[in-house]
Design a protein that fits this description.
The complex is a heterodimer of chains A (663) and B (301). Chain A has twelve helices and 29 strands. With 663 residues, chain A is an alpha/beta fold. In chain A, the strands form seven sheets. An eight-stranded mixed sheet of chain A has the order 17-16-18-19-25-24-23-21, with helices on both faces. A six-stranded mixed sheet of chain B has the order 5-4-3-6-7-10, sandwiched between helices. In chain B, strands 1-2 form a two-stranded antiparallel sheet. In chain B, helix 3 packs across helix 5 and helix 5 packs antiparallel against helix 6. Classes of the chains: A alpha/beta (663), B alpha/beta (301). Strand 2 of chain A pairs parallel with strand 8 of chain B, so a sheet runs across the interface.
């Protein structure tokens, strides 16, 4: 049988139509001329014209043949001999099941459907050699294709068929399937998968073109699915704990579900409504009874139940160190001290009633250059930014780049402070003036919060004036450039920047355009500005402070103690399933990868076409052929023929031209 | 156009760009006449030419009495007679005149029209009478010679309105034109000259018999004279629509041979009947025709 290593080149044969079309178009378009009188003209052309037509036709044929041979040469023709009838693989028929065992197959009724398909197919192909490959993250040949394996496959499907909690990667499995089916004359691959697009993308494997591939539409994903994406716990004061549950709806219709959260003996539930293809957050407040406690969040079960449950650790994370730098100049030291008092109240460090995430220390600005900032997570410059030297600013910039957070309040000369910050590349914000310095423009409050920011998630006021009702007697007016790394988090009621966030590599700097006032703390807590500072600091230190969250299949981390010994887990870790573990004092969570909850599927026709494209990473399809029967490569013969045609064309051209000139 | 020389002014490229024949003829004739002594026609009139001896029967009023008194000799004065020449321009507007080759600057008809306009204008300036006859298969337009202002305007307007078409019926047309010309005239025939064998001799003979002078201008395209084609082509006769496929490179020699024989024969016929023959190539200047006209006019006197 004639095959081609690069059959794609054969598509160029369509280009042969071009000279033919040109020939046909030009055939009837002989040159005509209206001449004054033809009485002196002899009719001489006909015999010559006939010869010219013959020559043109012959040349056309030769050139078309030449072009065809060139294309064939590029397509690398080869002759695959048919095996003798008594050969071992003659007439052999191979059937292979490719079973998707990823977690997305854990939908309701999927197991029964697969069992039914396997039983039906085994009956239909009883005389074929049957095999089975399962795959999730890694492929596994469960049964090699053979006549004997048929019964074993049936038995296995009825008793031992199971699915993992891992993501699916069919690429290696397909490569193995290609190898297992290669000795067979008739090849059939039955793919038992939901064809989730996350699983079936990035395929590089290819099967031989004569492989028949079947997918089963009844194994498709259900139309609706809502999932718990993650749960985040935050210790609050008065031994309270806030749980933020992130939910996502992967379907195209709104989901109204009941979410129940259990934390030790406490239990709460909420009705949640999630818009199509949207995320939402549900917030619960629990009493914190233990330092470290296991919790579980659960949605009403749907057709994909594996993502409706979520176990998590909650408790007190490691304390974060805050360093507050105060102005030591006699003129401003009192204002700076008042701001520090406010900060202490905001961080709850003044009262030792409950667990404090933050511990706070203060130093004078003149000492900052001598302080090592390595064990400090957050730095507050309370009205002293303009007194720091440029070397100190370089040190602070390095601190931010390494993941630290900087908070700045304006001092006596915010213009100088902004200039210093511009010099060290922290910002491009420009100073415009100080509003309220003449005490006529007092009474401006905060009225807008950036909805995408960490604060926007917690404070969602219905009306701008609901947010913070307190007077700003004096604040700095700045103009912010339109830079991706600089954004406004809070604005005043007259829409001027109140809090700016500047991102610099791993860390952030936050610039308040006003000074903290201790009187604000007298307002009701939920309405005051105190929790804003607290939340801001919590956002700045990130989320993974308490427990390490991993996806099933990822290897657990190693934790070393100071003496070099490695922490041991409380029980053997089965990291292919979701679960909660502790390695030493470090809590670990294993969850199912949320990408398995997606409902997007690949098109079966496209998949079939792609899989049988016959080329595997640029290797010719012949790589898949049986090594006992190598194909005969014909490209040399094609090249010789091509050369002959070129010669023939040359001869035809010269001889005919010579005849023309003789005449 | 102060900077242009006469040659430049009369260059066919320039002239044929002017579509208004009135303007064209004025420019061409003015350019051509500058530097040439105006040729006046002498005849019986007021201008004294010579004396001759009195012969009985001469009008006594022509006797020079002063001379008789002085020398006692009878002499009669002879005066120059002023005549008006009539010029009939006969223009062939058959379909073959519509041809324009690659090297020509216009169609043969356009070129002939330009020549006709120049001649008519020249006649008008010299108080001669100019007439225009255009024919194809029949007489398309006939303006008998006259010297009023309306005549020249009519001629120029007619030239602009006629376009070549149909097969030429030279014999019939020329016969009809001959009937128009009752008085002695100068007949300028502008044609490509594809006559039937006896047409031209017959026409010239008739004109000669009637006492007319004749200039035959054979206007040909360079393609007709040199046959520069190369490929095999289908040639379609512009008048008969007959087609003939021929390989130009092969048939050229034969064509040129026949063409030259035809041209020589035409020239010979003109010579036989004492008609001026001019062969004009449409890539050349109009000047030869005008010169020939003036020579002819001068030659008569």
């Amino acid at each position: 049988m004639l095959t081609f290593a690069y059959p794609a080149f054969l598509g160029a044969l369509f280009a042969l139509a071009v000279p033919i079309i040109l020939h046909l178009l030009n055939r009837n378009h002989s040159q005509t001329l209206v001449f004054p009188s033809i009485q002196f003209l002899q009719k001489t052309a006909l015999p010559r014209e006939g010869r010219r037509k013959l020559r043109d036709l012959l040349l056309l044929l030769i050139r078309m043949l030449l072009f065809t041979l060139l294309i064939l040469l590029l397509a690398r023709p080869q002759w695959q001999k048919k095996e003798a009838p008594n050969a071992t693989s003659s007439g052999r028929k191979g059937l292979l099941f490719l079973l998707d065992q990823s977690v997305s197959m854990r939908t309701a009724g999927q197991r029964a459907r697969i069992q039914k398909i396997i039983t039906e197919q085994m009956k239909a192909y009883s005389d074929w050699d049957c095999g089975l490959i399962g795959f999730s993250q890694e492929p596994k040949i469960i049964f090699r294709p053979s006549q004997k394996a048929s019964q074993q496959i049936l038995k296995w499907a009825n008793n031992d068929l199971s699915f993992s909690f891992l993501t699916g990667d069919p690429d290696s499995a397909l490569k193995q399937a290609a190898v297992l089916l290669s000795p067979y004359d008739k090849k059939r691959l039955l793919v038992l998968s939901d064809c989730q697009s996350n699983t079936w993308k990035n395929i590089s494997a290819a099967l031989s073109v004569d492989t028949e591939i079947s997918f089963f539409p009844e194994l498709a994903l259900p139309p609706h699915n809502a999932a718990i994406i993650q749960v985040h716990s935050t210790p609050l004061n008065h031994k309270k704990l806030r749980l933020t549950v992130e939910l996502q709806n992967f379907g195209d219709s709104e989901e109204n579900r009941t979410l129940s959260v259990r934390l030790g003996s406490q239990h709460q539930q909420q009705h949640v409504s999630i818009g199509p293809q949207k995320n939402t957050f549900a917030i619960f407040i629990f009493d914190q009874k233990d330092i470290l406690i296991q919790g579980n969040a659960k949605l009403d079960l749907d057709a994909m139940p594996f993502d409706d449950q979520y176990s998590f650790w909650c408790g007190n994370p490691i304390q974060q160190k805050i360093l507050a730098v105060l102005d030591d100049s006699p003129k401003n030291s009192q204002a700076s001290a008042l701001e520090f008092f406010f900060l202490q109240k905001a961080m709850n460090t003044k009262t030792a009633k409950s667990y404090n995430l933050f511990s706070i220390q203060s130093i004078d600005s003149s000492l900052l250059s001598a302080i090592n900032l390595d064990d400090c997570q957050q730095l507050f410059l309370l009205g002293c930014a303009e007194h720091l030297s440029s070397d100190t600013w370089q040190k602070i910039t390095t601190f931010i780049k390494q993941g630290g957070s900087l908070f700045i309040t304006p001092g006596s000369s915010p213009q100088t402070a902004l200039h210093l910050m511009q010099q060290c590349g922290l910002t491009k914000t420009r100073f415009l003036g100080i509003i309220g310095s003449d005490s006529k423009q007092a009474g401006l409050g905060l009225g807008w919060v950036q909805p995408d920011s960490c604060l926007g998630r917690l404070f969602t006021p219905q009306h701008p004036s609901d947010l913070f009702l307190f007077a700003l007697h004096k604040y700095v007016h700045v103009s912010t450039p339109n830079q991706p790394n600089e954004k406004i988090i809070l604005k005043t009621l007259d829409q001027r920047p109140a809090l700016l966030q500047w991102t610099l590599e791993k860390g952030n700097a936050y610039f308040f355009t006003f000074n903290f006032t201790p009187q604000w703390s007298d307002f009701v807590l939920s309405q005051s500005f105190l929790p804003t500072i607290n939340e801001l600091c919590r956002c700045a230190i990130g989320e993974q402070t308490l427990s390490k969250k991993l996806y099933c299949g990822q290897t657990p981390p190693h934790y070393e103690q100071l003496n070099g010994t490695q922490d041991q887990p409380d029980r053997p870790i089965n990291y292919s399933e979701p679960g909660l573990y502790q390695i030493g004092a470090h809590p670990i969570e294993y969850h199912i990868d949320p990408k398995e909850s997606h409902l997007e599927v690949s098109k079966i026709d496209n998949l079939k076409r792609f899989l049988t494209r016959g080329i595997n990473k640029g290797l010719p399809q012949a790589e898949y052929a049986s090594p006992a029967n190598p194909p005969i490569k014909l490209w040399k013969w094609t090249a010789i023929l091509l050369a002959l045609m070129v010669l023939l064309e040359g001869i035809a051209m010269t001889t005919m031209d010579r005849k023309d000139t003789k005449h | 156009m102060p900077d242009l020389s006469i040659q430049e002014l009369l260059s066919p490229e320039l002239l044929l760009k002017i579509s208004d024949y009135s303007l064209l003829s004025r420019l061409a004739v003015k350019g051509f006449l500058s530097g040439i002594h105006p040729s006046t026609c002498h005849g019986s009139g007021n201008e004294f030419v010579q004396y001759r001896n009195y012969t009985p029967g001469d009008d006594l009023k022509l006797l020079d009495w002063k001379l008789l008194a002085r020398r006692n000799k009878l002499c009669t004065k002879i005066f120059a007679e002023e005549t008006n020449m009539r010029c009939a321009i006969v223009l062939d507007a058959s379909a073959s005149m519509a041809y324009k080759g690659k090297n020509a600057i216009g169609t043969k008809f356009h070129y002939a029209s330009a020549v006709a306009a120049c001649l008519a204008s020249l006649c008008h300036q010299q108080t001669d009478q100019a007439g225009l006859f255009i024919y194809a298969d029949k007489i398309l337009s006939a303006t008998p010679p006259g010297h009023n202002v309306g005549n020249i305007s009519h001629i120029l307007a007619t030239l602009q309105n006629v376009s070549p078409s149909n097969k030429a019926n030279h014999l019939l047309a020329l016969q009809k034109i001959g009937e128009y010309l009752k008085k002695r005239s100068l007949v300028v025939l502008l044609t490509d000259g594809y006559f039937q064998e006896k047409t031209l001799p017959y026409f010239l003979k008739q004109l000669k018999f009637s006492g007319h002078d004749c200039i035959v201008c054979q206007i040909l395209d360079p393609d007709e004279l040199h046959f520069p084609f190369q490929n095999t082509m289908q040639f379609i006769d512009s008048e008969t629509s007959e087609s003939r496929t021929a390989t130009a490179s092969l048939t050229r020699d034969e064509y040129l041979k026949k063409m030259n024989a035809f041209l020589e024969k035409t020239r010979q016929i003109c010579l036989n009947y004492q008609a001026d023959y001019l062969q004009i190539n449409t890539s050349q200047s109009i000047a030869p025709v005008l010169t020939s006209y003036l020579n002819m006019r001068g030659g008569k006197h």
